[in-house]
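F.,

This is the one I mentioned.
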């Protein structure tokens, strides 16, 4: 028997129509140090996709995959879903759990890493949601899972598949650029965040593309230009690869679990455009998404916690 009576899938949230974009961005940046110009620019990125982020669709698919994994292993645990910044909000999920009589839930967050943005900010959001709901269940975040096979194996396959997309004559020794969301250098936990990313990058590179050069770089920096963030930026890195005589790159977004807007715009539009102008062949590896192996993680992390080996 597990000592939890529900799983709560916790994600970031994203707009699902043009009218959602500005209120969503206001939610995300409330109290954060993000210039208004940056907000307008990011709003345009969402508008290019009809004001719809793919992230909520990914969460629906992941929730279904987790439910299928629980059912296949005889684990009778309801799965709820709530977001930090958009509907369905965490507070609504917490209220629904309370109304269903849930007392103690485990939280699986759609971020594999430590650090303030990638971990602690989710815990804060869960606690804020609980504070809004009298009689809220206890909610414990499951541990980070960047080094678990359920996260790493789909990435290994994705890099192999991306390499296979390159024209054969560009494939041998093509460099890999592992990317993650940048964070301010002053952000608590950024060293652990960067160190965990490097662990995944090294492991995936070794497994999927032994002998290929690789580097960990950053994308999607925000904040005022005067504030230092983790570098190098992926765009500058592509330029350096080109200057060093490379003619192809495999971009691998190891910092994210699904192909949401930072992947679809910041990589597939923006970074791909930089590569195109440099004449660098560009392929991008898929993130785990709703891969069934990824969907085993909530169950296996729960089993570690409770000693239940289902
Ligand atoms: C480390 C990290 C992850 C990875 C971990 C994880 O996955 O959680 C991540 C994920 C995501 N970030 C997302 C969206 C945004 N992040 C922003 C702003 C910021 N992100 C930051 C960090 C991270 N972000 C930081 C330090 C800021 C500056 C403001 C602040 O200090 O908080 C802004 C405001 C505009 C801008 O400044 O770019 C937006 C719209 C979406 C949803 C995408 C979609 O809609 O499909 C996702 C999954
Ligand atoms: Fe972000």
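My design for it:
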């Amino acid at each position: 028997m597990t000592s939890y009576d529900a799983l709560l899938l916790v994600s970031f949230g994203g707009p699902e129509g043009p009218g959602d974009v500005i209120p969503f961005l206001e939610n995300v940046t409330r109290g954060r140090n993000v210039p208004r110009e940056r907000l307008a620019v990011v709003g345009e990125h969402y508008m290019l996709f009809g004001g719809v982020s793919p992230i909520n669709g990914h969460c629906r698919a992941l929730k279904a995959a987790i439910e299928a994994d629980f059912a296949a292993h005889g684990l009778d645990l309801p799965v709820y879903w709530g977001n930090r910044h958009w509907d369905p909000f965490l507070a609504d999920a917490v209220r629904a759990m309370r109304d269903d009589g849930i007392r103690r839930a485990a939280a699986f967050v759609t971020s594999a890493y430590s650090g303030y943005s990638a971990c602690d900010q989710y815990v804060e959001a869960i606690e804020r949601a609980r504070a809004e709901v009298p009689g809220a269940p206890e909610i414990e975040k499951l541990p980070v899972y960047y080094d678990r096979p359920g996260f790493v194996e789909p990435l290994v396959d994705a890099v192999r598949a991306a390499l296979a997309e390159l024209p054969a004559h560009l494939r041998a020794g093509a460099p890999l650029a592992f990317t993650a969301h940048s964070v301010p250098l002053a952000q608590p936990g950024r060293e652990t965040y960067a160190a965990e990313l490097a662990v995944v990058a090294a492991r995936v590179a070794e497994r999927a593309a032994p002998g290929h050069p690789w580097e960990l770089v950053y994308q999607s920096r925000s904040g005022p230009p005067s504030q230092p963030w983790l570098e190098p930026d992926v765009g500058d890195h592509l330029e350096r690869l080109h200057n060093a005589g490379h003619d192809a790159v495999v971009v691998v977004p190891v910092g994210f679990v699904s192909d949401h807007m930072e992947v679809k715009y910041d990589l597939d539009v923006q970074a791909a455009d930089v590569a195109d102008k440099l004449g660098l062949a560009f392929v991008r590896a898929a993130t785990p998404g709703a891969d069934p192996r990824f969907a085993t993680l909530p169950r296996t992390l729960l089993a570690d916690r409770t000693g239940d080996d289902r």
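The longest helix spans residues 190-208.

Talk soon.
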